[in-house]
Design brief:
The protein is an alpha/beta fold. The chain is 23% helix and 21% strand. It is globular and about 40 Å long. Pfam families: 5-FTHF_cyc-lig.
Length: 191
């Protein structure tokens, strides 16, 4: 399946999901996380969902991480189209950017090399662990700056497509993808 086909189809599939089903599926995805062996990690980077695009609601995952005394890191898009990363605290004030992404207004900045686990937003993924986002490349550029051993976990309401046929050299595969019904583990994972 081509990226442009995925970008046309999957937003429509999401819009067809009623809010109560979105909440239920998001909670199921957060429960899948409990089954992964990632709890030795300290720094967890998580996206905050664009509610208008019916993304996976990560507000169910954040308390799980905080309850285990993990450092929760959230992104902010910079003027030059890169991501900067901030520690989420009780004092963090969130504002929506031009894409309706909630972002920290300020806070303690964290280096990419400190991050142990990254949760990845997506529209869809394939059986080899490659994902399709909205096409801005924020996460591909961010992952290039992370340590080689960073654990990459996708979050998706839907199971995989067979193959994304127009992958590019800069596309980075995930280690895992959590869906409401299954945990997908990819061969590039040593965990």
């Amino acid at each position: 399946m081509l990226k442009r086909e995925i970008r046309a189809l999957y937003p429509k599939l999401r819009t067809e999901l009623p809010q109560d089903i979105l909440r239920e599926k998001s909670l199921d995805i957060s429960n899948q996380l409990l089954k992964l062996q990632v709890w030795d990690a300290e720094y967890f980077h998580i996206f905050l969902p664009i509610s208008e695009k019916k993304e996976v609601d990560t507000s169910y995952i954040i308390p799980v991480l905080q309850g285990r005394d993990k450092h929760v890191i959230i992104p902010k898009v910079t003027r030059d189209g890169e991501l900067s990363h901030f520690l989420l605290s009780d004092n963090t004030r969130l504002v929506k950017n031009k894409w309706n992404i909630p972002e920290p207004e300020n806070g303690i900045q964290i280096s990419e090399t400190q991050i142990d686990v990254v949760f990845l937003p997506m529209l869809a993924f394939d059986r080899e662990g490659y994902r399709v986002g909205y096409g801005k490349g924020f996460y591909d550029r961010f992952l290039e700056k992370c340590r080689e051993d960073v654990i990459k976990i996708g979050l998706s309401f839907f199971g995989p497509v067979d193959r994304i046929s127009d992958r590019e050299m800069h596309d980075i595969p995930m280690d895992f993808c959590l869906t409401p019904d299954e945990i997908y583990s990819f061969s590039n994972s040593s965990r």
